[in-house]
Design goal:
The protein is built from 4 helices and no strands. The chain is an all-alpha fold. Helix 2 runs antiparallel to helix 3. The longest helix has 44 residues.
Length: 106
């Protein structure tokens, strides 16, 4: 879901949509708080606009870091499937690579 769609759901005070990644969930909640803050007078429209701009600037980074995390998890699962074989086959480079991935050697 793109940020504009997320904001529309949040603006209408709808429930958190299913299937959102964590950064999208956080953006939804932040948008909901911004819109509620403007409605009750705790924030001016200008303050809300400034904060919205900052949120959107950070959202791209949040999504990138989430994607990196997801890719790393998938890679580690795949690596775990062959880690034992790499460790016992006698190849020193393989053993060193596994030690690095496991965090035992830097």
């Amino acid at each position: 879901m793109n940020p504009e769609q997320i904001e529309i759901h949040a603006m209408h005070n709808e429930p958190l949509p299913n299937g959102l990644e964590l950064p999208e969930q956080l953006l939804f909640m932040a948008f909901r708080w911004l819109h509620q803050g403007v409605r009750i007078g705790a924030l001016t429209r200008e303050q809300a606009h400034t904060e919205k701009t900052q949120l959107l600037d950070q959202f791209t980074d949040w999504m990138r870091w989430d994607a990196i995390y997801q890719d790393t998890c998938k890679m580690r699962v795949e690596l775990a499937g062959i880690a034992r074989e790499m460790t016992v086959n006698g190849c020193p480079i393989c053993k060193r690579a596994i030690a690095i991935f496991d965090g035992r050697k830097f």
